[in-house]
Amino acid sequence: MGGTNTGPEVAKVKSICILGPPGSGKSTLCRLALASPRDTDYTHLSVGDYLREICSEWKRGEMKTDVDYDVLAEHLRENKLLPADVLIPLLKKRMGEHGQRFETCWLIDGFPRTPQTARAFDAIIGRPVKVIILECARSVAETRFLSRRREASDDKKRFDKRYDEYMENMKAIRVYYEDIIETTYTDRPQGEYLADFVRALDSAHEDR
Question: pLDDT digit string (tens) for 145-204?
Fold first, then answer.
């Protein structure tokens, strides 16, 4: 998976993965939680936003990596999941840009989405200290997803595909990470689930 200078040393990387269906509030919760000073230094990484950023920089001629941009753009356009051998080196590169400068705990939202990428992440970068799963009623998640419309193609058909795919993949991920999972319910008032989310973050370090 590339040369020795493409990412951080595995032992130095700490991470918490944030999972939830589309519209469950993953990125929003991470931003809100980090808006106030915390005892632990966190760096937020939205995997979806990062991949879109790579494509945008490539189109402007600003990004140069070994990735096949046509493959990446196609997967994003068709809403297909990237294979582990493409995605993990990209995450390792991104995390390495910060990991060598200061000690941080990464909040990785929207990842992992398959058991295969979970196993590859653990082997190459390091097992997360906790996996926080956001539970949200489908109707609430759908309303949020359609109201935000981050992309022009975000419609009910796309929501249904992503939601059903998420629910199916989560069966194996829940088993794989069963000893480090904590659940937060996000179809309640924001103040309530934000408080629960922050407690889950803090407890990840208390448990270590």
Answer: 998 877 777 899 989 999 999 999 999 999 999 999 999 999 999 999 999 999 999 888
Range of the domain at 191: 12-48+103-202
Q: How far apart are CA 115 and CA 177, in angstroms?
A: 10
Please give the Cα distance from 108 to 19 (Å, whole number). Answer: 9
Does a structural domain hold residue 84? no
Does residue 69 fall inside a structural domain? no
**Quick one: DSSP state of residue 179?**
G
CATH code (residue 161): 3.40.50.300
Sign, Cα dihedral of 130, 151, 116, 119: negative
Q: Tell me the pLDDT band of 101, cut-offs 50, 70 and 90.
A: very low
Residue with tokens 């490539």: 58
